[in-house]
Amino acid sequence: MGKTITIDPVTRIEGHSKITLRLDDAGHVSDARFHVTQFRGFEKFCEGRPFYEMPSLMARICGICPVSHLVASAKACDAILAVRIPETAAMLRQVINLAQMIQSHALSFFYLSSPDLLLGFDSDPAKRNIFGVLEKNPQDARDGVRLRRFGQQVIETLADKRIHPSWLVPGGVDQALTAEKRDLILSWLPECFEIVDRTLERTKRSLEGFREEIRTFANFPSLFMGLTTAEDKLEMTDGVLRIVDANGKVVVDNADPSTYRELIGEAVEPDSYLKSPYFKPAGYPGGMLRVGPLARMNVIDGIGTPRANEEWAEFRALERGAVLSSFHYHYARLIEILFGLEKIDELLHHPGILSKQVRAHARPNNFEGIGVSEAPRGTLIHHYRIDENGLIEWANLVIATGFNNLAINRGVLQAARHYIGSQQIEEGMRRLVASGALRPGASVPSVRDLARDLQVNPATVVRAYQRLVDAGLLVVRRGEGTFVAEGIPTLPKAERGRALAEGALRYASTAVTVGASREEAAHVLASAFARLASTREGEKK
């Protein structure tokens, strides 16, 4: 009988979600799904509201990336007004969007990801957080706090609020930048550059230690999409859409974002409130897309700022085509932080940045408007239709997490098959040795043969065998193969306790399932222990 494993809730994200893993009768992972369990309803409750309210309302969609929704919404409203916003307003929108990108990437890298990267995936979950990082490496924790603070302070300096600002308005921005505020922001930049420089260097040096994760964390072919400039450079606020395939070949180039419905289909699944956008010409689910930092690094031909461009070139050298492993989202975020700092510095030194002309005024001239920008997690689309009174008749939001939905499911499935499969192999091998079915000195199947027989990735078998070698249960003889160790290793007390607790839980679960009493379960366990101990003693003689 198959089994379903549920991970609920999924942590380190904003919102409510869970993961389900479906195991077949043989215990192999047959499917994996990421479920968004929270219904938001923003598109529906916007109906009947004046269109000019949309930016400030849409900023409430997300507490981590409110500026992204603010930018996309304001751009959709610009299209309804049919205005070209002043150059200064366009630059200021870039500054605040980049500031949000920096603070969000800092949150993701230092607060959410670094505990795993610095402390290890097998570390104590109770300490695998920013406080554990603070204890082990205070400098990393401080760097994360300071870098995120910079992004939040820039947003507050421009918009008077750090969270859910309403500074962006249809036609531009609400208030011009003063020289005092500009100089204040510029004074914060040197420390931020220092933080990014040392973090990038440390991250690049550490990649060799994550070869397995790079190989197994959502590493598969897909399409990648993002905004670019007309010169195919990195663009976060305006630009045109570009799509490339897994080989880095351009599939769609210089596409007007207002034509997104010709390129993007939107599918829904019954087990999630999150939509699954896809590349329409390839169909569903074959048109799987990835967006966000990794995608943006793959779709561009260069970044556009000198230091970030050097890092990007080094990043793209990791693979011949597109960089496929989602593990490299971490690396890409740091490059985008560097780009954001360089670009903010450039924009704030522009001679027109202090102009008082920051808003274009007009009445609605179109009944429809589309705004597209880049959010920290990827391409974001806001699409509105209004009636003759300027009230929203229909709204459609295509968010970055939705674009990544198909890839998230695929990545979870890949990781689950890797880790659950390796655990099953490890446990099975331990049982065979414990029962005497595999005697000391006996050879075990090769990685290739066992992977073929179990229909799993060879990397899964490698991981299981390596754990057994580390535990002293197996030994590798170069040129001969892998064998059961001659002696039974004695594990450290703590490790022995964990192994016993895990095994006891599985046994107790079986006992409860079949309706055994506590006494019956204890008796069977004692008998099995005595039988195995007797067998071991006989082998020693």
Structure, described:
With 541 residues, the protein is an alpha+beta fold. Among the domains are: 85-219 and 327-359, Cytochrome-c3 Hydrogenase, chain B, CATH 1.10.645.10; 220-324, no CATH class; 492-541. Helix content is 49%, strand content 15%. The strands form six sheets. A four-stranded mixed beta sheet has the order 8-7-6-11. A three-stranded antiparallel beta sheet has the order 1-2-3, with helices on one face. Strand 4 and strand 5 (172-173) form a beta hairpin.
Largest sheet: 4 strands, mixed
Could you list the spans in which at least 5 consecutive residues all have pLDDT below 50? none
CATH homology superfamily name of the domain at 85-219 and 327-359: Cytochrome-c3 Hydrogenase, chain B
Looking at the overall shape, the CATH architecture of the domain at 85-219 and 327-359 is Orthogonal Bundle
End-to-end separation? 42 Å
- Rg on CA atoms, Å: 27 Å
Shape category? elongated
Proportion in β-strands: 15-25%
What's the helix count? 18
| CATH-defined fold name of the domain at 85-219 and 327-359 | Cytochrome-c3 Hydrogenase, chain B
- Average pLDDT number: 90
Describe this protein with a few key phrases.
4-stranded mixed β-sheet, Cytochrome-c3 Hydrogenase, chain B, 3-stranded antiparallel β-sheet, 16 strands, alpha+beta, 541 residues
How do the strands and helices of this protein lay out in sequence?
Elements: E1 3-7, E2 17-23, E3 29-36, H1 42-45, H2 54-58, H3 66-81, H4 87-119, H5 130-136, H6 138-159, E4 168-169, E5 172-173, H7 179-206, H8 211-216, E6 223-228, E7 240-244, E8 250-255, H9 260-263, E9 264-267, E10 276-279, E11 289-290, H10 293-299, H11 306-316, H12 329-348, E12 368-375, E13 378-386, E14 392-398, H13 400-403, H14 405-435, H15 447-454, H16 458-470, E15 474-477, E16 481-484, H17 493-513, H18 518-540
Parallel strand pairs: 6-11
Antiparallel strand pairs: 1-2, 2-3, 4-5, 6-7, 7-8, 9-10, 12-13, 13-14, 15-16
Helix pairs in contact: 3-4, 4-5, 4-6, 4-12, 5-6, 6-7, 7-12, 11-12, 14-16, 15-16
